[in-house]
Amino acid sequence: MSVEFSTPRSMMTNGVFYVNGRLRRQFGLNGVSRGTPEVLKPAYWAVAKAWKTLAPPKHNFEAAHERQFDVDLSAPDCIRWRPGFGPAAAAQAA
Q: What is the pTM of this model?
């Protein structure tokens, strides 16, 4: 299971990395993420949010890695396995 914790500062930095990475991959431009002035980071963050919404990447982690379970406090061990996954599916495959 993965959990993400972000601070406003880390969100701004991630926006800079995202925009510069996308500019590099799509247009061959070389942005300098570490040298971005603090005053521009909110603009990069806004561009990253808009870009992710309006033109999402074709390949992303969520599409490549199907969710296998959900956290369910009423289920045994608080895990509700999705069809085709979990101990029962592993036993059937063996």
A: 0.60
DSSP string, 28-70: -----STT--GGGHHHHHHHHHHHHHHS--SS-HHHHS---EE
State pLDDT tens for residues 51-64: 989 988 777 666 67
Write down the mean pLDDT value for the chain: 87
Cα–Cα distance list, 64 to 58, 59, 83 (Å): 10, 7, 17
Where are the strands (E) in 1-94, listed by range? 69-71, 79-81
> How far apart, in whole angstroms, are the C-alpha atoms of residue 72 and residue 91?
22
